[in-house]
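An instance noted here:
***
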Amino acid sequence: MGGVTSSMAAKFAFFPPSPPSYKLNTDDPIGLITLTNFPHRENVEILRLPTRRGNEIVAIYVRHPMATSTLLYSHGNAADIGQMYELFIELSIHLRVNLMGYDYSGYGQSTGKPSEQNTYADIEAAYKCLEESYGAKQENVILYGQSVGSGPTLDLAARLPLLRAAVLHSPILSGLRVMYPVKRTYWFDIYKNIDKIPLVNCPVLIIHGTSDEVVDCSHGKQLWELCREKYEPLWLKGGNHCDLELYPEYIKHLRKFISTVEKPPSQRINSRRSTDQSEQSRRSTDCLEVSRKSTDHRREKPRQSTDRHDKLKIPGHKSSNLDKLEKLRISFDQMEKSRKSVDCFEKSRKSVDHQLDRARKSVDRLDRVRAGLLVEIADMKNEGGLLQRCEHFSLICALYGKDKQ
């Protein structure tokens, strides 16, 4: 399956210059290798390096006498070290670093065919040469990957826990994501940088042009969000895919980054905090108006509080005390009204009790009247029919529900 993936990738991802931009010249007596069309320099060496996959790649090493860091540069697509030669010299001078660049398998005068797995073996061979031939230590090495070169750069960076730093120049999220905005990683995708960058422990600088028509700037921004140790990114306004080195900000920002990562870790932490603050300031610029209004509001509150404080301090100012006395007077008035209301309720309760007492006495009198009438009725019955002649008979029957007899 890996072979199928590599062959698919080779058709779409790799475009080595044809013909190569240089040829190799070898001086037989001393074995000195030089590039055609470029004069020999004392501080420049051309090397042939074997890889673990059986290929032989061509590399260039540029030495700087004041260097404390070594930059391992993985170039972009459709380029070789002949085209990159002058840039390598300039970067070494301006950044004060040793620099090694190399051609991938199948590029320039390197043997083999270009593939994802071959590029991983190629950068490993270059890094091994730095350690064994030039005494470079992991903590002094800075990996630099441009475009497709971000693939082998991040693959190696994820496996070097003590690496000094990494630079990603117009990087890709993955090979497939350059062509299609897929949301997941597929088995046939190549250079899965989106999955590897969270594994990188060192500071990472990302440089991308906002007008890149080959690899959209969103690739660089998403990779920056996924970095574990972020450094202030460089988004070059109007920059395209292959012209970022022409911007003055490019070398200036790169020099600042190298200077920062060469500092001791304690000082580097302070620089990273400054970087985080710069990024927050950049984001807050998008909502500057909201922040301004919020600031005005916060300023207004202390001013009003100060005004109140000043009023209390003025000897002749009694409005605050008068307000308090007025509130107390209103409170006493309300209490008085409440008391009067209670008194009224008490009087009403006594009136109700009095009326109930009168009603009870009336019921008692009615009971006495009824008892007397019953006695009178009984007497009438005993008198043998005098009840029918009683002129109050109807009233008595109505009162006691008696039927006429």
Remarks:
- The chain is about 50% helix and 15% strand.
- The first strand starts at residue 24 and ends at 27.
- The beta strands are 24-27, 32-35, 44-50, 56-62, 70-74, 98-102, 141-146, 165-169, 204-209, 234-236.
